[in-house]
Amino acid sequence: xxxxxxxxxxxxxxxxxxxxxxxxxxxxxxxxxxxxxxxxxxxxxxxxxxxxxxxxxxxxxxxxxxxxxxxxxxxxxxxxxxxxxxxxxxxxxxxxxxxxxxxxxxxxxxxxxxxxxxxxxxxxxxxxxxxxxxxxxxxxxxxxxxxxxxxxxxxxxxxxxxxxxxxxxxxxxxxxxxxxxxxxxxxxxxxxxxxxxxxxxxxxxxxxxxxxxxxxxxxxxxxxxxxxxxxxxxxxxxxxxxxxxxxxxxxxxxxxxxxxxxxxxxxxxxxxxxxxxxxxxxxxxxxxxxxxxxxxxxxxxxxxxxxxxxxxxxxxxxxxxxxxxxxxxxxxxxxxxxxxxxxxxxxxxxxxxxxxxxxxxxxxxxxxxxxxxxxxxxxxxxxxxxxxxxxxxxxxxxxxxxxxxxxxxxxxxxxxxxxxxxxxxxxxxxxxxxxxxxxxx
Amino acid sequence: xxxxxxxxxxxxxxxxxxxxxxxxxxxxxxxxxxxxxxxxxxxxxxxxxxxxxxxxxxxxxxxxxxxxxxxxxxxxxxxxxxxxxxxxxxxxxxxxxxxxxxxxxxxxxxxxxxxxxxxxxxxxxxxxxxxxxxxxxxxxxxxxxxxxxxxxxxxxxxxxxxxxxxxxxxxxxxxxxxxxxxxxxxxxxxxxxxxxxxxxxxxxxxxxxxxxxxxxxxxxxxxxxxxxxxxxxxxxxxxxxxxxxxxxxxxxxxxxxxxxxxxxxxxxxxxxxxxxxxxxxxxxxxxxxxxxxxxxxxxxx
Lengths: 441, 301
Description:
The complex is a heterodimer of chains A (441) and B (301).
Chain A: H1 2-48, E1 52-57, H2 64-77, E2 81-85, H3 90-103, E3 109-110, H4 115-122, H5 143-146, E4 159-171, H6 172-177, H7 187-199, E5 203-206, H8 212-228, H9 232-238, H10 247-259, H11 272-280, E6 284-290, H12 294-300, E7 306-309, E8 320-331, H13 338-349, H14 351-360, H15 377-384, E9 390-393, H16 407-419, H17 425-435, H18 437-440
Parallel strand pairs in A: 1-2, 1-3, 5-6, 8-9
Antiparallel strand pairs in A: 3-8, 4-6, 4-7, 4-8
Helix pairs in contact in A: 2-14, 8-10, 8-16, 10-17, 13-14, 16-17
Chain B: H1 2-32, E1 36-37, E2 45-46, H2 50-57, H3 59-95, H4 101-109, H5 116-127, H6 133-140, H7 157-169, H8 171-182, H9 186-194, H10 199-227, H11 231-236, H12 250-259, H13 269-296
Antiparallel strand pairs in B: 1-2
Helix pairs in contact in B: 2-3, 2-13, 3-4, 3-7, 3-8, 3-10, 3-12, 4-8, 5-7, 8-10, 10-13, 12-13
């Protein structure tokens, strides 16, 4: 009886395997046939019109609509090429790209991170190196833009897409209410503006130090660029001629400490998103961030009267400002539509493509120097801040990110030690130097 | 006899194949990754034991690793204290069969069914220094001095996260304790009453010793889940274990090193695998020791 039952179960098992494998076989054969049919149809269209859809991926999920509008402009000019923008969440983008490259399923056009992240992705060999022959427009781009997507031996692997300018947003309505008529031009003026706002019962500045990247990119880098006056300082630091004990760096930390008097209480636990909400909901008057937030702000609270100014220098208007090389466009080297991909990339690199990008993805600025016209008023305001100011890329990304701890983490730790654990700015600078000692070896 | 054994082997085979394919193979292959240097793109390079040596000799790695183990132990202790104590109290109350006890039994279990990310977000809002109900409440009753940045303070952040974590899973100990309490024969209580024991004394002398095995089971579950935890920290203080690494546990350290950071250090899969191996060893060794201790003092009715 037992044996009979065992036999029966084994048979049942075998049958279930067989019945499982059958539909699979069927579906695979049907796949082949559909593939064949699609091949045939694509052959037909090759003769007829050569309609191609390029896929495009990036980490700017919030730009979906804007990118679609921009791509429609492109398709109206090149009717045989359609672009499908399928972004992936920013925090998951890099691991997504790794898998897509490894499995050979990446999109035809891919956004590439600037500096270290981009170089690592390029090392996979799955991103097409771009030459001036392939994309002639690249020759017009400034060095500072190309540097973000260039290897140490000079290969360019993406067309610079958009840059974001980093500075200060302010709420015009609250400024009016507090009787502030002029944006501050020195640090002391900024502090007195904060006093006035505080008296009226608003939070002067929405800022917190719970997110390391925010401390690094939007607070410390922005203040530092307002103090150093020219990019030479950064070059010297990168060349190890000076280190983090330099008086300018200490001065920057002092600036962070002075400004922290006007941060909301409990700022140690405030994240970037908390600060964003405080500013959008008009509880706070000033918000240090970048132009990249413009589209989001305007969409979330259309009544918000936005203004912007460059972070003030010590005794007068700053001579430099902080910016980021944000987005870029690269070609997947194994794309089946190389010609079309090159056509698209060349258009994106052109004056026309740059303008289409900046006017749709508001807050990002194209880097082709010929591109000029901007439709958005506040975006124009942001761009005008660059007049008479040198734009310096936010500190640390060019070369201080390839070991533990990277610059971002180190500076966030330093600011924490200074603001919470009571280190003086010069002690904090020494702490910073100690953490980054791997770079100066 | 021998034949029937081989038949049983066939029954086990499908499960064994599935388990090997989806559990053992990934486990072993990811442990194997710890001998390679790999950024996630392109080719892997064999580096032997270099990753292990780096973890234990380079101060920048070792300090974080030791810190993560320390925080993990604290995280485990806080969670286990909160879960066992609160779970026991709640179960004891439900066991009194007060009106509506069944309703509360379900209520305590609801958070367990929520996603960790939702729980993290919820508690992050509660702890928010400006508009969080906790601080608003403290200010409302005049305790302004106690209102603070709960998640921004090194001395409170980990405890606050442990409470959120324990709150989510408190339903499980409640159910287990309750089952244990209801399984105790009534005769024991009756005879103890004849001997003059009541209330609290009954609880400590009868109920508690008999449900001690449940504490063992809960501790095991919490140990395994806490030493492999990641999501709750990720949702509440981020992958850096802010503030100042005071909530950095093995899971976040692993994530940071293995997948790199946003625009920061490049991914180091090999080193990540080393940390994953360490987590695996800690959990296996910890559970084995715990089972050994328990096995020696097993009790029955």
